[in-house]
Amino acid sequence: QEPEEKKIALELLETEQAYVNRLHLLDQVFYTELMKEAKAGKTVPEEVVKMIFSNISSIYQFHAEFFLPELQKRMEDWNHNPRIGDVIQKLAPFLKMYGEYVKNFDKAVELITAWSEKSPPFQDLIADIQKRKVCANLTLQHHMLEPVQRIPRYELLLKDYVRKLPPESPDRDDAEKALEMIFMVAKHSNAAITEMERLQNLWVVYQRLGLEDDIVDPSNELIKQGPIQKVSTRNNSTSEKYLFLFNNMLLYCVPKVIQVGAEFQVHLRMDVDGMKVRELNDTQFPHTFLVSGKQRTLELQARSGEEMNAWIK
């Protein structure tokens, strides 16, 4: 009966072997063949192929030439030296390479779809490779997802491994340290995705505002946006406006009637610094609140109590 921790270490080795085969397929088959056709000018620009596969070659070489052989040596020698923690510690810093691949993944899938429509020879070549036995009836996109899922897989296996280690195991310290390192890398790659999504959302907002120079700033954080009614006490009426609240400013906008380019026109910028917000108990206009800043004071009406509270918060 093998000890539990050895079973997990063997599972790590087996999944690593399968993973290297998958990376080989992506780098040495898909990437190489698509690149060859692109260079011959038959399918798509070379740049597109490079953008689809990002840094897959570096990832493949690292696993095939370093990590897998090291793991194999370890498992052959397990009876004399039952440990993998130190090998994984050596692996962990290199996993930061995944940040780039993971961040590029959605873009890569979009490019495959777009160019498959634009270039039938590109689509045919991919379909041809997908028919081969090595692809196991799975699409290129499916295979490309594998590196995205690999780091979380290491984390799960290693957590399990540390849990099953006997307290006196010579690998305990190293394995715990390795797990900590893998955990940090996983966080790093998730942070990269979150940051990318934040910038993507910000860019969409800037386009809706017509890319006004002084507003476009990548460090801004969009907190909330949505339609709002502006109450005019003078003539007892409300008019439709739209708010964008950032960490440093509130943009008070008017939807454009003729939507060419931007959707909104910025009527007023208010600094968040020194801003005060309070609820008003106005019987005529329910769910209203007052926003006063250095620039001016606005009386705004939300569609419901919940919405008003969300804005105030």
Automatic annotation (TrEMBL):
InterPro entries with a match to the protein in the record: DBL_dom_sf, DH_dom, FYVE_RhoGEF_PH, PH-like_dom_sf, PH_domain, SOS1_NGEF_PH
Domain of life from the UniProt record: Eukaryota
Key word Phosphoprotein present: yes
Any one Gene Ontology BP term: cytoskeleton organization
Main subcellular location of this protein, as a coarse class: cytoplasm
Location of this chain's protein in the cell: Cytoplasm, Cytoskeleton
Keywords, ordered alphabetically: Cytoplasm, Cytoskeleton, Metal-binding, Phosphoprotein, Repeat, Zinc, Zinc-finger
A molecular function (GO) term: guanyl-nucleotide exchange factor activity
Boundaries of every DH domain copy: 4-192
Domain PH span(s) in chain numbering: 221-313
Cellular component terms per the entry's GO annotation: cytoplasm; cytoskeleton
Alphabetical list of SMART domains matching this protein: PH, RhoGEF
Any one Pfam family match given in the protein's UniProt record, by short name: SOS1_NGEF_PH
Cited SUPFAM superfamilies: DBL homology domain (DH-domain), PH domain-like
Organism: Grallaria varia (variegated antpitta)
Zinc-finger as UniProt keyword: yes
Annotated protein name in UniProt: FGD2 protein
